[in-house]
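BUG-371 | component: ligand-complex export | severity: low

The export step for magnesium ion jobs runs without errors, but we want the raw record kept on the ticket for reference. Input record follows.
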Amino acid sequence: MASLPPTDPRRLYVGLMSGTSLDGTDAVLFDAGSRAVLGHVHAPFPAALRDELLALNAPGGNELHRAALAANGVARAYADVVAQLLEQTGTPRSSVIALGAHGQTVRHQPGGFDGYTIQLLNGALLAEQARIAVVCDLRSRDIAAGGQGAPLVPAFHRAMFDAAEQDVAVLNLGGISNLSLLHADGRTGGFDCGPANCLMDGWIAQHQGLGFDADGAWAASGEILPDLLAALLAEPYFALPPPKSTGRDLFHLGWLQPHLAPDARPEDVQATLLALTAHTVADALTAHMPQARRLIACGGGARNGQLMKALGRLLPGVTLASSADHGLPVDQVEAAAFAWLAHRFIERQPGNLPGVTGAAGPRVLGALHPA
Ligand SMILES: Nc1ncnc2c1ncn2[C@@H]1O[C@H](COP(=O)(O)OP(=O)(O)O)[C@@H](O)[C@H]1O
Ligand SMILES: [Mg+2]
C-alpha cells in the first residue's frame, strides 16, 4: 500500500501586490505557518501597460475593451513575477496553496447603495498561466457588506506586529498613505490618510521626467509654500471621520491644479506635496491615537528620507521605526498581507475588520480560480 507523503508543515502562499503608485508588482513567498517571508521579487510593469493603467484611472473612450486588455496584461505581468519568485526560491509550484492577487485599482468608489471598487486582473488567465489557484477580488465583499473595502492590511499588521505592551501605529506609505492603529487592549483601527507618493511621483514625472523623487532630494531643494499647503489641507477628506478610504479618484494632479499659483516653482510645489503627506499623517495620528509612542513605517515612501524627517519633526514624542526593524522589509509588507489574506480565504476565515472598514460584519474576502 502506498504511503502518504509526510505532511508539509509549511503553508506556502504567494502574495501579489501592485499599488496605487503604479511602480509595478511586488511578489512574496509567504509561509502562513511561521508567518515568514521566504522570498521577494519586484518587477516594474511594461511601460505601455503602466501608461494604460494610469490612463484607466480617469474616464476615457472604449473603457470596457481597454480595461479587459489591461486586466490580461496585469495577469501576464503577475505570472512572470510568480515564475521568477518560484525559480529564485527553488519552490515547486505544486507546493504553493494559492496566489493572493490584489490586481490594479483603477476605481475606488465605496459606500452607499452603488458602491464598488475595481482591481483590474484576469484571475482566470493568471490561474491558467501560473497553474496555481488564484484568490483575487479581495475588496468587493467588504464593500457589498457596507464597508470601504479598504484598508485591508490592519488585520495583517495586527497579526504581524507586537502591540501587547504599548499602543503601536503602522504607517504604509504607498501611492496613498494608510494607518493601522494597534491598541494594546486588542482594538484595531485603521483608515487611509490621504495622498503619499501618487502626487509626488506625478509631479516629478511632469517636471523632471523621473519616476519618483529619490530620498525626497528634489523636494528638499525647494521651500514649502504655506498658502498652497493650507489650501490643500482644507480638502474635506482629511477631516472626515473613519471609516474612510481613497485613491486616485480624488488625489490626482487635477486635484492640485486649481490651487497652483502660475509662478510657483516646481521644486517648491514638490516640497509642499511632501509636507502635505507628512502633515496629513501626523494630524491623523494625533487625532486618532494621540498616545502612540511608536510608529512603524513601511511601503516605498519609507525610503524617502526627507519624508521620514518631516514626520519626525511633526511627531516629536513618537519613535519612528521601519517594518524592517520587525523583520519585514518595507517593500514586502503589503504583498505579504495579500498572501495572508489568501490564506484566510482558503481557511474560510474573515479577512476584514468591521471596526476598520465599516462593514456590517466579518467576511471571508476573495473569489477563487482553482488551479
Ligand atoms: N528611495 C526612494 N525615495 C523616495 N521614494 C521612494 C523610494 N523608493 C520608493 N519610493 C516611492 O515608493 C513608491 C512605491 O511604493 P509602494 O509601497 O510600492 O506603493 P504602492 O503600494 O502604491 O505601489 C514609488 O513610486 C516611489 O514614489
Ligand atoms: Mg508598489
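Assignee comment: Attached the raw record above. The radius of gyration is 20 Å.
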